[in-house]
What we know:
Elements: H1 5-28, H2 32-46, H3 53-66
Helix pairs in contact: 1-2
Amino acid sequence: MAIDLLTQFNLLALVIIIFIASLISLRLGLSVAIIEIVLGAVFGNLGFLQVTDWMTLVEIICIRASGSVHVFHRSR
């Protein structure tokens, strides 16, 4: 199974973001998750990350598992 270049670049970018977030969290003493969210938003808005199918799937699973946000509305 071949992985396309966009997916490889996204995975590399995510690994770099996670590594940078862990270094910043160690230095500042903050939670890694908070720094990952901030860095993900920054890198995403700068255009370094492109939304792929697996990211959309993870987003839908997380939102639906939380139960607090309803994305899909069923018509009655």
